[in-house]
UniProtKB/TrEMBL annotation, chain A:
Organism: Streptomyces griseoluteus
Pfam families: ABC_tran
Domain ABC transporter stretches: 6-231
InterPro entries in UniProt: AAA+_ATPase, ABC_transporter-like_ATP-bd, ABC_transporter-like_CS, ABC_Transporter_VariousFunc, P-loop_NTPase
Entry keyword rRNA-binding: no
Keywords: ATP-binding, Nucleotide-binding, Transport
Name used for this protein in its record: ABC transporter ATP-binding protein
One term of GO molecular function: ATP binding
Superkingdom, natural source: Bacteria
Automatic annotation (TrEMBL), chain B:
Keywords for the protein's UniProt record, in alphabetical order: Membrane, Transmembrane, Transmembrane helix
Top-rank taxon: Bacteria
Transmembrane segments: 25-46, 81-103, 124-150, 170-195, 202-220, 298-319
Protein name: ABC transporter permease
Cleavable signal peptide: none
Source species taxonomy: Bacteria, Bacillati, Actinomycetota, Actinomycetes, Kitasatosporales
Length: 294, 324
């Protein structure tokens, strides 16, 4: 098994010959076995990245390797749930799962899929068209997990779920990841939604990778500082974002070494990190995956 | 990596079953259409054709006596209706294929869901094309056989049944209508892949197949060498209305074929003088006689099959380029 789940180099995708770039110059590496949060505002290019990784769309430029091979070749080993949770409306829940079994011979986990559906108190005879958004999500997840993928790509999986179902399904996902070593990439524009369950972050803004790496490492690489606006000493460090309120200056920096001067420092939260990078499109991107490459 | 690919290989995904299940309504409609048209064709070939023959015999008998009115029954109306229905089938197929076979699945995203099950996009399209192609071929071939049966049922005489070369009868009597259904399937599939929205794809598919099939019908007489008959003025146009006509007109002294000049005169002699002034020596007709029925049918079908193959190949290229 490859130790890399997804690796992108110079990846770009544009819609139409003269359309805008949905994704450009993306380079990152997602190690296998991680639970990765793909975070970014609406229209950042998250869904495009997932469709590319699932082999549903060819990149305009650059290269993408999934599970050590091309996305098209990796397709049987990848599970994918699109944002709209597309399912055949005319089939019943039971039929949908039976279809999953028929289309994935040799790797279908019927018991696992049924367990996910059963958790939602769903009548197997109900047609998909009469399900609520959250119930659909449950069936879509069952279909994606049932094929026992090595890599699970979930595009905004929790958006339609109530807090209880979200907690329950997150538990199922984490259980699967822990049991089978499945790599999970899930997108969200709500940081809090993914913070507790993910150990890896891919922050995308305006079609570019802004932050990529282990969440703990990323947090450790940044510092929140506050002090008087007259204080010197931030030169030499990378200032991601700084704000001045009256004579008070607060900033998020990537320290190049110990911060000298009269600054109050504290560790940033993940939310701080994400917001600061999204608010300052000019700040340099940071990719912290090199240490895993060995 | 290798261990997992080995365990994942064994049985083939049972995609055919689900393609049938997902399109069970379309299949039911097609079967109903085929059964209904078949039944009506058999009815026309049996009781209706007999009724029509009897009426024409009565007419023959009473012509010798006096003026009379004879009811020829509903063979002709039923036959015409069924022929029209069969000619419309390819366009129904195009509408269905354009709207639901590919476009709707791409619009709603269910195609993407299917591709991330263990069914590659190319396989998905291959099954999606093969199954309807088989169903259409079987159904349309049955209809053609029964249509020929219904067409041949009444005695061959003017007024009783259309001649073999009348366009709709011509196509409903041979394999061109079967291949037209396959072309329509390919047109709809490619349109759906390109347009990716249900309603526009439906419109474009129907329009494109009208153009394509209309074009094939227009090309048909030119796909095979035609026959030219020449005769003197007093015999009129030779073999006019006996086959698929390409042109008729005057033959000049130099042997050239020119359109017949307009002649409003009621006397043939006056017209004849006008024709001779233009250098005319007689009339000609360029046409395909009845012996060309099968050659015309087969060349047109072959042409449509080539078009179908090209459209199908294009569909696969589009899908492969899109999904990598």
């Amino acid at each position: 098994m490859s130790d890399t789940a997804i690796e992108a180099t110079g990846l770009g995708r544009r819609y139409g010959r003269r359309g805008a770039w949905a994704l450009r110059d993306c380079a990152f590496r997602l190690p296998a076995g991680r639970v990765c949060a793909v975070v970014g505002p609406n229209g950042a290019g998250k869904s495009t990245l997932f469709a590319l990784a699932a082999g549903l769309m060819a990149p305009t430029e650059g290269e993408l390797r999934v599970l050590g091979t091309s996305p098209a070749d990796a397709r049987p080993r990848v599970g994918y749930v699109a944002q709209a949770k597309p399912l055949y409306p005319q089939l019943t829940v039971a039929e949908t799962l039976r279809m999953g079994a028929d289309l994935n011979p040799g790797r279908w986990d019927a018991a696992g899929a049924e367990r996910i559906v059963a958790g939602g108190d769903l009548d197997p005879g109900t047609r998909i068209r009469s399900l609520s958004g959250g119930q659909r999500t449950r069936v879509a997840l069952a279909l994606a997990l049932g094929k026992r993928p090595e890599l699970l790509l979930l595009d905004e999986p929790m958006a339609d779920l109530d807090p209880l179902a979200r907690h329950d399904l997150m538990g199922v996902l984490m259980g699967t990841a822990a049991e089978h070593g499945t790599t999970i990439a899930m997108s969200s524009h709500v940081v809090a939604e993914v913070e507790e369950s993910c150990d890896h972050l891919l922050l995308i803004g305006s079609g570019r990778v802004r932050l990529a790496g282990d969440i703990d490492d990323l947090l450790a690489a940044h510092l929140r500082v506050a002090g008087s606006a007259e204080t010197d000493g931030l030169t030499g460090h990378t200032v991601v974002e700084s704000r001045t309120t009256g004579r008070q200056l607060s900033a998020l920096i990537r320290p190049a070494g110990p911060v000298s001067g009269d600054w109050r420092t504290e560790a940033p939260t993940l939310e701080d990190l994400v917001l600061a990078h999204l608010r300052s499109p000019g700040a340099p991107a940071l990719t912290l995956t090199e240490e895993y490459a060995a | 990596m290798s261990t997992l690919s080995v365990t994942a290989a064994p049985a083939h995904p049972r995609q055919a079953r689900w393609t049938f299940l997902l399109h069970r309504w379309a299949l039911a409609v097609w079967v109903t259409l085929v059964v209904a048209i078949s039944g009506l064709l058999l009815w026309a070939a049996g009781p209706l054709a007999d009724e029509s023959d009897r009426a024409w015999h009565r007419l023959d008998a009473c012509r010798r006596l006096s003026r009379c009115v004879v009811d020829t029954g509903s063979y002709s109306t039923t036959y015409t209706f069924l022929t029209y229905a069969m000619i419309l089938l390819p366009f129904v197929v195009a509408a269905w294929a354009g709207a639901t076979l590919t476009a709707r699945e791409l619009e709603s995203g269910t195609a993407l869901m299917a591709w991330t099950q263990s069914v590659s996009p190319v396989r998905w399209l291959a099954v999606r094309l093969t199954l309807p192609a088989v169903v259409l071929t079987v159904g349309a071939s049955l209809l053609v056989a029964l249509h020929r049966f219904a067409w041949e049922a009444p005695e061959e005489r003017t007024g009783n049944r259309p001649t073999w070369w009348v366009p709709f009868t011509f196509h409903a009597n041979g394999p061109t209508i079967v291949t037209a259904c396959l072309t329509a399937l390919a047109v709809g599939t490619l349109t759906g892949l390109l347009v990716r929205r249900t309603l526009p794809a439906l419109g474009v598919s129907v329009a494109a197949s009208v153009l394509l099939l209309g074009g094939a019908h227009w090309l048909m007489p030119h796909l095979r060498t035609s026959v030219t008959e020449v005769g003197p003025f007093q015999d009129g146009y030779p073999d006019l209305y006996t086959g698929v006509e390409l042109s008729h007109g005057l033959v000049t002294r130099t042997g050239a074929h020119i359109p017949t000049p307009e002649c409003q005169a009621t006397s043939m002699d006056v017209c004849r003088r006008i024709y001779e002034q233009r250098g005319g020596t007689g009339f000609y007709t360029t046409f395909h006689p009845a012996s060309h029925f099968w050659p015309l049918q087969l060349t047109t079908s072959a042409l449509l099959l080539v078009v179908t193959a090209l459209l199908t190949a294009a569909s696969f290229v589009v899908l492969r380029r899109r999904t990598g």
